[in-house]
Amino acid sequence: MNILNKLFQILYKALFIFSITFIATLFLVRIAFNSLDWYDNAFERHRVFEAKQYVNGYVEELPFTRAQLSEIAQDIIIYFNSENQFLDVKKQNLNGEVVNIFNQREIDHMKDVKNLLELLYHVQEGLIIYVMLVITIGFFMSGGTFAKQIISLINITSYFTILLVVVFGIISSIAFSQIFILFHQLSFSNDKWILNPLTSNLIRLFPTQFWVESATLIGMLLVLVFISVLLSLYIINWWLYLKQKESEDRAPKYLSPES
Q1: CB-CB contact of 225 with 165 (8 Å)
Q2: Domain presence at residue 187
Q3: pLDDT tens digits, residue range 180-227?
Q4: Which value, in Å, is the radius of gyration of the alpha carbons in the chain?
Q5: pLDDT for the residue numbered 252
Q6: Does pTM top 0.85 for this prediction?
Q7: Which uninterrupted H or E stretch holds 53?
Q8: Is residue 247 part of a domain?
Q9: Could you tell me if residue 251 is inside a domain?
Q10: Is 245 inside any structural domain?
Q11: Average pLDDT over every residue of 227-235
Q12: Domain total for the chain?
């Protein structure tokens, strides 16, 4: 029984640590995927509307206004938050023609992306329930003493997440393209994610550098969040120490009969 109990303790603590890291990461991913300002700023930074020279050829500038590019980004955000199965975005180009922004291969890939996001969001929601159950049951069974265990787990989670981000950042700085390709190979069961930059507006709007910057931003925010958590825990522990010391100083001092 002792072995099973220790194994259970290890498993639930490891899952708790993973859950907090996953929940925080997906929370930031949700914000990024729904941030119109992030898209608009990226369009400007990467000058996506300009003509581009690729290894395999040259593409003309996008025949849409800056305002229309922002509308396209808004349409994508709406799509990810809707019940629509397929992304359907049409705009009037500078020649006065109403055209589809994305081709069928891009639409199929966006459907796969949406399905992946929905799966990850459901996992996040399940882990939130798990964390709440652990905390509720822990306090119910152990009372106030469980608070120390939770604080310890959050402390470990913070260091773990910061270390994970640093390691991932180092590896990504060396081989981001390989990681990006591996992610797509593991996440999708087809090759619809392999798009031709000469014909794909999706590639034009969201080049590789966009994903490098997005991953970097999410990583930096994760580090800031968990550094803030560590500082908060330090301040709480310091405040509790001062309160305990103050309580001890106020306690009446009794002299022994021998003195």
Answers
A1: no
A2: yes
A3: 999 999 999 999 999 998 999 999 999 999 999 999 999 999 999 999
A4: 26
A5: 66
A6: yes
A7: strand 52-54
A8: no
A9: no
A10: no
A11: 93
A12: 1
